[in-house]
Write a structure and sequence with these properties.
Length: 323
């Protein structure tokens, strides 16, 4: 079968599977109390969480469909296994929680355990990293031992931290993944596309439910898995610099949040802002990228999300041009 037709069918199958799954899934999540408050809506309505479950099973449906029509390499199956680990860890976090007053084991090991999730790929990645305009740096055993797991873990957590407004994390993930597809095609690296297209189909289905006004939140299970996919594309295809530039808005947000929580007074720390009667965001400060623009301009949640999309599009386009 022609590759273009195969990829198109895979996206279609994955997307339709996701659409089919989400309606009953959302009803069950709400019925069993797996909900969160939509903090930037009047009245803070309850919205089902853990939408990552739908992304996960839609993605698996795409992989099963694709594997029946095309031979998928052992490395790609290992990549899927790593994604499953991130999904399960995020799901555990969704179920058990890791709040300040929570004794959940995920609170203690949330940083440590995911570091090792990428180790199944230890013997299947390069030992070099290409730095644009400077050349190729040989890292030897240091790459699979440290760079591989750290890069994937950081991408997963950057995406998780960027999940703030309706559709924000999944929309930015899709933008980055589409540019990664373009980059891999230009490099004639076709292998990774066999899991990228089913994943894009699954996120497309989820975005139709998560976009403003959201009918479901991704939860850690969805956000960690989406970020891990970005990181895995980088380390397997050797496009770390490309992904680094594409994720610059997420990196800037992380630096702003880290500075705020490390050096600001404890009394100034808060997780959410509010919403004004005209539905514009009322941020408590300008210490995160998500609050920066609404702090200076009267913006709604949807407008702020579109700005975040724009920033990630510009950074991804810059990665395409310069990396």
């Amino acid at each position: 079968m022609d590759t273009a037709i195969l990829f198109t069918l895979t996206i279609l199958v994955t997307y339709l599977t996701g659409i089919f799954l989400f309606s009953p899934l959302l009803e069950k999540l709400k019925r069993h109390g797996f909900v969160g408050r939509d903090m930037y809506k009047t009245g803070t309505p309850e919205v089902p969480e853990m939408g990552g479950i739908g992304i996960f099973f839609a993605f698996l449906a795409g992989i099963l469909f694709l594997s029946a029509l095309h031979d998928i390499s052992y490395v790609l199956y290992l990549t899927v296994f790593v994604l499953i680990l991130y999904f399960l860890f995020g799901l555990m976090d969704d179920l058990l929680g890791s709040g300040i007053d929570d004794a959940s084991p995920t609170k203690i090991v949330k940083i440590l355990i995911p570091f090792f999730f990428a180790y199944p790929l230890f013997n299947h990645v390069q030992t070099t990293i290409e730095i644009p305009y400077l050349g190729v740096l040989e890292l030897g055993i240091l790459y699979p031992l440290l760079i591989l797991p750290l890069f994937v873990m950081v991408c997963a957590n950057l995406t998780n931290m960027f999940s703030y407004y309706n559709g924000q994390s999944v929309g930015t993930t899709m933008i980055v993944l589409i540019f990664i597809v373009l980059k891999l095609r230009s490099l004639e690296q076709w292998s990774m596309l066999y899991i990228l297209f089913p994943f894009i189909g699954a996120t497309m289905a989820f975005l139709s439910y998560n976009i403003h006004p959201a009918g479901v939140f991704p939860g850690d299970s969805g956000d960690l898995m989406m970020g891990a996919m970005i990181g895995l594309c980088a380390v397997i295809a050797g496009i770390e610099a490309f992904v680094f530039v594409a994720l610059l808005p997420l990196i800037i947000n992380f630096i702003m949040v880290a500075w705020w929580f490390l050096f600001e007074k404890e009394s100034d720390k808060t997780k959410f802002g509010g919403v004004r009667p005209d539905n514009t965001i009322d941020p408590p400060n300008n210490r995160t990228l998500m609050w920066f623009f609404p702090y200076y301009f009267r913006l709604t949640e949807n407008q702020t999300t579109l700005i975040m999309y724009g920033l990630v599009f510009i950074s991804s386009l810059s990665a395409w041009v310069f990396c």
